[in-house]
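User: Structure please.
Assistant: Input sequence and predicted structure:
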Amino acid sequence: MFNLNFVITSEWLAGQLSNPNLVIIDCRFRLGDANWGYEQYLTSHIPGAYYLNLDQDLSSPVTTHGGRHPLPDAAIFAKKLESMGIKFGETLVVAYDDLRFAFAARLWWLLRYFGHETVAVLDGGWPGWQAHNYPVDSLTPEAKSGDFLPQPRPDWTVDIATLKQRKELSDVMVIDSRDSDRYRGEREPIDPIAGHIEGAVNSPWKRVTNEEGYILPEGEQSGLWADFQGTGEIIVYCGSGVTACVNLLSMELAGIKGAKLYPGGWSDWCSYLGGN
């Protein structure tokens, strides 16, 4: 049984829908259609769930550098959480999506980055909830009053300058979380340049779950990172600091502590290539 702070089941959540100390957040999103997730949410969602959009809520505006999904401004993010009734360090937040934790894990990581540890992702996500025929509705819950005082942990991240300084060190491992063909530069559907950061190894984020979006057993999570046990420092990245959080979730489940996120990811790294 996984730590409740990390992964919870639909069965458990279905029994907690009336819990006043619980806030459920729908994180469904598609990179090619920024409104898709919200439209799906308005059609049907877990009762009482709020919605957060990757572009608008879980990121700050894009600039020339910094990647496609820079981390959100702490104060702005805190106000959004407070409007859902979230109390810092107290409220249990459950995040879900329909794409194998791709966006729910971003919220899971963000909340912990800002100091809020009581957060979990829903195993199996929205498809799993529906498969069990648990209740759904289309109502948008009213705004509430919370109290969220963010306490960022800057040592959980690295910027491009730090990554350049550290990636060649013998006790530092850089992990690219994207699909293997993107890592190899054979396909690049989003960013202007294909390839990966020199020296990085590849561990695709989709390996953390099965095709139905359920987390692999704890032993298999540990197996994903067996080669990295004992590494002095692990730095994880993806295209823009989103799906890399699925790997960070997996590492936590496997007992690997202290892995860092390069939020800018390949989108930030390649923005400096070619004279940009």
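The longest strand covers residues 22-26.
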